[in-house]
Structures are given as C-alpha cells and as structure tokens.
Amino acid sequence: MANNEQLGAKKSENTQQEENFGARFINFFAKNQNVIFGVVIAILVVAAGIIAFNKFYLTPKNEKASAAMIAPINYYLAGDSVSLNYALEGDDENDGFLTIISDYKITKTANTAKYYAGLTYLKLNDKEEALNYLLKFKKKEDVLWYACQALIADIYDEQGDEANAINYYKKSVKNDDPYFTPINLFKLGQMYERQENWKEANNAYQRIESEYFDQYQSMGIAKFAENVKSKLQ
Fold first, then answer.
1. What is d(CA 36, CA 29) in angstroms, rounded to the nearest whole number?
2. Which 8-state DSSP code applies to residue 90?
3. Three-state SS for 175?
C-alpha cells in the first residue's frame, strides 16, 4: 500500500513538472516570439540565398570555366615549351590556366586549374611555381588530390626537405588506388630508410605486401622489406 502511494506521489510529481515545463515553454515563446520568428526567417533567407547563388551564379560560372579549360589542357598535352606557356597564359582567343584561376576563383574548375598549372610548371622545370600552385589545390576531387600530394612530396624530396616529403607522402597513401598508392608507399618506405626509421619503413612495405601483393612482387619490394626486417632484429 505504501509503495502504491509512493508511486502515485512520484507520478503526480512528474506530471506537475511536465506541466510546469510546458507552461514555462509557452511563456518563453510568447515573450520571445518576435525574436524566434526573426531567427527562423533569417535562416530561411540565408538558405534561399545560398540556393539561388549556386543555381544562378556558381553553376553557370563553373560551366563557363569548364568550357574554357579545354584549350589550355590541349596545350598542356602537346607538351612543347611554346604550348606549355600558352597553357598557362592563354593565346589570342583562349584563356590559360592562370586566367581561369583568377577569373573563376570560387569554382571547382578554378581549383582544378591550380592543379594543372602546377603540372605545367613542373614540365617547364619551374619547381617553385609548381609547388606554389599544387599547394593551393584543395581536396575537392579525391583522385587528383592524392596524386597532387605525391607530386608535392616529390618536390620536397628533391629539395632535401625530408620532413615535408614524408608528411605529403603520408597524405598521398590515404586511399586505395591500385597503381599510385603502392608506388607512393614505396617512396615513403625509402624516406624512412634514409632516416633509419626501420619500424615505419617496415610498416610501409608490409602494407604493400598485404594490400597490393601483385605490385609488391612486380616492384621487387621483398628485398627492401627483408633488409628492413634485418635491422629490426
């Protein structure tokens, strides 16, 4: 009987708390409804603005930028020094990568143009400018982004900057590309060997063996892996 009375009292108390909370909420809403409605309307206006901006400005601009990329890419593929300069600077009728980057700044295509500008400077053997544009390339296109990280690592390696080279090789292998990932893992392992970091070198080679066994065999990784394992004993 006592238990029933306690349960009833607790239930009554909970009901009273719920009623009090409901009353407080209603009072709060009544006092602040203008502010609440204002915030809701502001959110809706911002959302509508973003949608309109994407639909009526960004999408058409990106389409125009994509069309403009055709000529400089063709010049880049031609590969000779004159064509490579046209790829960067444009010609009398077409924009180059640099103009696309500056004129279509917030588009996905302008981001892609940064990557191609970096590649073009690499072909022209201007490593500093290549690095400048490759570092600006943002992760909007995963396949190109991982390749870009490896190129950045290659440049840092050539400059003797081992810390940055390792950092960017590590970024480049955070995917599962069956061709590029094992190559970059091997480069990473080589960097660790130079530093006599046998544990991390071993980890890189083991990942190639476990995840990319065909490449492990064709690239002759076994001899490097055995050498590193002997250092760990």
1. 8
2. -
3. coil
List of residues 6+ apart from 58 with CB closer than 8 A: 106, 107
Q: Quick one: tokens of 116?
A: 């191609």
Joined together, the tokens standing for residue 51 give 């949608």
pLDDT digits (tens, 9 = 90+) for 201-219: 999 999 999 999 999 999 9
pLDDT for the residue numbered 63: 77
Residue with tokens 């130079």: 194
H or E segment at 107? none
Cα separation, 164 vs 181, whole angstroms: 18
Q: Where are the alpha helices (DSSP H) in the chain?
A: 2-53, 59-68, 70-78, 81-89, 97-103, 108-123, 127-136, 142-158, 162-172, 180-194, 198-211, 213-218, 221-232
pLDDT < 70: residue spans in the chain = 1-23, 25-26, 28-62, 65, 141
User: In this structure, which CATH number among 2.40.50.140, 3.60.150.10, 1.25.40.10, 1.10.8.640 belongs to the domain 139-233?
Assistant: 1.25.40.10
What is the C-alpha separation between 168 and 36, in angstroms, rounded?
Answer: 47
